[in-house]
User: Fold these one by one.
Assistant:
Number 1:
Amino acid sequence: MSLNCGIVGLPNVGKSTIFQALTSAPAEAANYPFCTIEPNVGVVAVPDSRLNQITNFIKPQKVIPTIVEFVDIAGLVKGASKGEGLGNQFLGNIRQVGAIVHVVRCFEDENIIHVDGNINPVRDVDTIETELALADLESVLKRKDKNEKLLKSSDKKVADAAKVLAPIYQKLADTLNKGEAARSIGLTEDEVKAIRDLHLITLKPQVYCCNVNEDDLQGENKYVQMVREIAEKNDSEVVVICGKLESEIAGLDTPEEKLEFLNDMGLEESGLDKLIRKGYELLNLKTYFTAGEKEVRAWTFPEGSTAPEAAGVIHTDFEKGFIKAEVYHCTDLFELESEQKIKESGKLRIEGREYIVKDGDVVHFRFNV
């Protein structure tokens, strides 16, 4: 899976504004469709309070957070799957991301023109998801036609493989033809692996991001409630943010100023922090830490990774020459307050090649190349 999230939605829903606040990257924001012609890519730090807590007990020269990548993909419109607007180019960009952040306009503002003339989240969501489903349908039908020819192959292995794929393609075609997402079918792990090379957009995990006015952050408006109903049906989640407010927060110079601003607004954290963490979760990513005098650092790894695989995130030599991992959990450090006490309590473990690294582990890898 690609370790990035694509931000999608209709024109003028606030995608580029949110992207700018996320990454401080120069995505042009304007009151007209297609102001984003090329996908903008931004790398952002993942908020993790555990990283700062570790530095309370291990004093490093540097602190390095883990990251996640966001891609701002220009606005889709009705007919994008047939090439309307800049549809083909943008659909191709979406196929390359690992997860989707679907921004939905949930605010009224007569100064910002809606591409369809009025605010209707149900219609907007349906427009985007129908176009994505139709784009996937085109890919599936092409592959289905090719597979039907392989069913007649004189090579038994080729024909048998085609027989396995035929019912999967049929299920996908039937679902996508109704404008429904591939993820709604409930494909098995083996079925997903079998069609992975199709890079289906609607098979990617998705979160709805409701862009609201500042006044609606404390109490949800009717538009957000509409999106929540859609999300519940699609087994997806919702993050509510105010893009305009987040832009103001992003423009502040110091973390202290940002915290004071949030406190004045009655908010515990920014909406963007919630969105970043949700994107990280959608990508099925976890975090382990390395900690020493030179640096305390957070590392991203796919959930379920073995110790050598997690070591390979740092450098391929670590994975190739893996010997063992010295491991404790960050909560042990928070409780006992020093690595020496962790050792004395017997909570420092020596783990081998089969160990599955846990979120929040603090690890020191031993290797030889």
Number 2:
Amino acid sequence: MTSRIYLALDTTDLAAAKALAKRVRHHVGGVKLGLEFFCAHGQAGVREMSALGLPVFLDLKLHDIPNTVAKAVRALAPLNPAILTVHASGGRAMMEDAKASAPPGTKVVAVTMLTSLDATDLAATGVAGGAHDQVVRLAELARDSGVDGIVCSGAEVAAAKAAWPKGFFVVPGVRLPDDAIGDQKRVVTPRAAIDAGASILVVGRPITRAEDPDGAARAIGATL
């Protein structure tokens, strides 16, 4: 069975990213490459990572007018990412165009609310209600737009799945009980996220900062 753990390689160091991916490749289902990595290495860096044989989750969180996002997705199409993110707050038309422009094998998932935010942050940007309400609203909008799923915290994934039973749910910000939460505000354990309905988990620091990354990946996988 393919692991449901995607390793978050949030780094500008290509050699380190490749070395780490090679080290844990038998205990993760793929690698997530974000904006930090992409700005440093671009499509060439993504191709180098793809050559390792692991599915690539390209986490660029695209958010612009529909036409611009559609053109960006088409520009990324030769990379054939397994998963590509856009922001749900970009609206229905933007998400529709992103999905229509993506390669057939790419899952387009919409980011609902960053796990570094909480209700206080929402209020500061003029959004009424708590994280739960915002995630459910955006999950329903994403569902209606035709994308494949959403990114949300483990705290909201059960409610999102109830609203969208066939959705694909990406849960970042997972931590083992003894892990430091860092800059995350809404975290759950890997097992709790899976039980609540997560399709895949994005795990970074609990693996990348471990003394034994491969052992850490195996330990997390053993809890699922």
Number 3:
Amino acid sequence: MKLLLIRFSALGDVAMLAPVLRLYAQEHPDDDLTVLSKPFHAPLFDDIAPNVHFLGRDPKRDYKGIRGLYRLFIELHQMHFDMVIDMHDVLRTKILRKFFRVHGYPVRHIDKHRSLRRRITAPEGKKQLQRLPTSFENYAAVLYGKLFEAQTLSELTREESKGITHSIPCREGRGGSLSIGLAPFAAHQGKIYPVERMEKVIEMLIEKCPECKIILFGGGGKEREQMTAWSEKFSNVVLASEEVKERGLSYDNPLKNELEIMKTLDVMVSMDSGNMHMASLVGTRVVSIWGATHPWAGFLGWGQSEADCVQRHDLKCRPCSIYGNKPCLRGDMECMNISEEEIVERILRS
């Protein structure tokens, strides 16, 4: 069967599709699978399986409006897929799948459990905090259809997590160097640890591990200015772009270069962001920092341990948002009032 899977953005959500697709492709070698996403995301699906292909298209840039989406449909229609699976379920993909359905294609779409998400982000007194199905389970449910069993996927996730080293023994004062990735920013303010406190985390890491190298990932504009300032202030800190040059990496896609660096890290420190999922894909342990959002919403990285999630358990207002894009109801972002010592201890725990 020739399947088309549609998932345009965001980076972290697209990355979460990759391990599920790898498992399915290995179990169904006779199926031909094509992922339709933004061209930038192509490295996430490199070498997954011989029967997995990537098709890069950017609807916001090249296929604007209903007419643009119809042009995209015509291109896809000429590729003669047997089934279309919408892994995104937003307005543009709903329009696309409508075109396919009208032309007789079998179409499935993901269930994001939006009603359950509203319950766990409800105000105090109405909140029902519970562990929601993960994005991996949501992807697998629509991909496998009636054959999907959540328990089986959970077992596979645990099996793959065995390849991730979830501790760094005897790092403090050790002779060798420690390679730490740090992705201090995220798409929304509700997921970002305060910059001045993150600088203190950097200082403490260098104090405890004088020979460590801290590689900074992500950020643009003012965020990149801040990371550049850190790299100039601390000799142990480098930008990922500079590390790419130092290692002589020459992939055309910057995402591919960063994935290659992440493979070699001892640990990645990340917000609830795409970098957490990128590091997870290459089997690197991630210490993740959670503020307005919560790992129970289903977005913890593939194979990662909840013990490596740094978060406040004593706040009844958490989570107040699934994506971290809502203003703090308290107005003080108390959820990000996490001690620097706790973060450093979690990074270096043995």
